[in-house]
Design brief:
Layout: E1 33-39, E2 42-48, E3 52-56, E4 60-64, E5 71-78, H1 86-100, E6 102-112, E7 118-128, E8 131-142, E9 145-153, H2 158-171, E10 174-175, H3 196-201, H4 255-258, E11 271-275, E12 281-285, E13 289-293, E14 296-300, E15 308-315, H5 321-329, E16 343-346, E17 349-355, E18 361-369, E19 372-380, H6 386-394, E20 402-403, E21 408-412, E22 418-423, E23 427-435, E24 438-446, E25 454-459, E26 465-466, H7 470-474, E27 482-484, E28 491-494, H8 500-511, E29 517-526, H9 528-531, E30 540-550, E31 553-565, E32 574-585, H10 589-601, E33 604-605, H11 607-610, H12 615-626, E34 645-646, H13 647-650, E35 656-657, H14 666-672
Parallel strand pairs: 26-28
Antiparallel strand pairs: 1-2, 2-10, 3-4, 4-5, 5-9, 6-7, 7-8, 8-9, 11-12, 13-14, 14-15, 15-19, 15-34, 16-17, 17-18, 18-19, 20-35, 21-22, 22-33, 23-24, 24-25, 25-32, 26-32, 27-28, 29-30, 30-31, 31-32
Helix pairs in contact: 6-14
Length: 673
Amino acid sequence: MRMFSTLTRRIPRGGTIAILWALAALSFADGSWRWLSCEDPAFTLAAPAGWQISCVSGRGARLTSPGGGPIVEVVAWEALHLPATPEKAAAEHEGVLGRIVSYRRDGTEEITTNTGLRGLLVRGRVRAHGISQASAFAAFASGQTHWVIGIFGSEEQIERLQRELLEPIASSFLPGVAEAPASAPPSVVPAGAGTAEETEQSPPPPMDEPPPDDGRPAPDSPPPDERPAAAQEPEPTSQPRATDEDREIEPVVDAREETPPPPAPPPTEPWVQRLDPRGFRLSTPASWRIDVGAGIITAREPRAGGGRVWIWPLVGVTPGAQMLEDLVRRLPGLDLAGSALSADEAGELAVLDTLTSDGSRLVATWSARDGHGLLVAGASPGGTGLQTLARIASSFEPGEWIVPEVGVQEIIGDRRLISWQVPEGWKTTGGARREGDDTYIDVTVSEPGAGGVRLSWQQPLWPRFRSLTPLLESLGWEEGDRYSMPENGRGLLIYQRRQPGELVRELIIPRDPRALSNVEMEERGTMGAIAGLLTGPDAAGSLLVVRGDSAAGPRERLYLAATARSRAPLTATTWEAAILSADAPAGSLPEAVAQLQRLVRSCAPTAAGTATGEALPALIERAKRALAAIPPEMVGATTSAARPRSVFEIAGQGGRAWSAPAVALEWWRERAN
């Protein structure tokens, strides 16, 4: 689709606006007009006498005025989405315009050609190379073709260009007609003058004396009425005077005084369909604004505190009222009246109806299926205007957004002893290892992108720990030193024995690559299932929830931590620990915990791992039993991503097209009519 000629041709880099014409000396309406035509695309229109037309095969034409004045362009293209309408033509044209320059729409109004073809007149502003200009164009639809007739101009001159040039040309527009009609082109009348026919039928008012020879109005003459003669109202008729002869004749009364005309209906704002460069479509009243930020589409009424509609397409999501409540709390610029929300859930659709702190009624719907979900919310001031919000919401048409497949992949550890499953696209490191007679598991799994979910499985932690005894202290050893054991050359870290909570607080959190500040830790008590991660004497295990701030934002973590003295013959001098952990953005911990469960439960020894004996299968089995200590309410649904992400964050990564659940807009459609 080709738009108006490249704007840089009209706005030179030198800073001079190429279309600041001497319009004061140029009148488009004073002279006669003539028909101009093109064959491909076929159309005919009227233009001022002396104007030339240059047709571009299959695309449109350029109308140029004598003496290098303004340029009017006609553009035609096959509608991207049928049926073709003026609103779609305007939206598609603005989508292309917005890719080339900075563009904003200022207003629209409906127009009709002389033959009754409906169109849309759109005013806007463009900016390129630091220079601003005004834009005006008329959009039409004919068959499967979209048409735009447009012009650029300075902000001071655009109104006159529109009134005296663009609107008359657009009114005469005949799509599909490649030959000029036999009739004369429409007569275009400058402001303040009547048509020739009206001038003949309305003689000039009588004058007491002839005008001066220089053509100026007489000094005492009133200013001429600027309205066309046909629009001037006649002087009121004098009422007949009753006399003695016709005293019974009733005075004439103006009927307009008895039956005043009905009040004019309030003006209705036209609706337009917007085609965003990101691919989605949305119909709104012409004055509403559409923005996309933080992955959320927002439509706003122009007045302060007006209506708003949010549309949030997501992946990696679960159905249900709880997800709806969590997402509503994340909507920008929204302050709910209270902390308690109530939502109804029916099948795939959850509906929330509540109030905001400014008294607006907030309605939100949430639907999710196969990891794809759509949140639609609308806030209506004073509880009115729900039908307008519903009409906007129900018009949403998503683009062709390609997002990762919903699925899992099987990973084999780096020493090929175990395998496990993770969501497709996630990164993994580690596996199972054997060091002499010892076997341990060290696996890390992370979601793509900074600040995503990260899972860790270390059973037991390696290397193990040497207790810092009084004897070692007397010899100068300190916590954190590496201790060498001459009999086998393996190293141990010297630390005093920690209980599970102390281990996490003092050793695990400080060494985590994702540093946390303002840490809060909640220990949910000791649990035998978690202690079973280790087999040494006096094993202890705890479930801990940690919250804090990070460079990527607020975080939440779950730890299953265990400590125990080592087995003989090192029981008196060494101890060991094990950790299963899930780290996620605040609000997404349940989904991350679900991924941790899948990681452990899907783990199995490979053929090579089975050949190592019973130690490796025993480690895996103890880790699976430890998962039973996690309360069900802390576990979310297992999806391809452990946290909701907007399609605008991940579109284009390969996979399949995003699809809104079938019932996503059903609630809004029912209320739109």
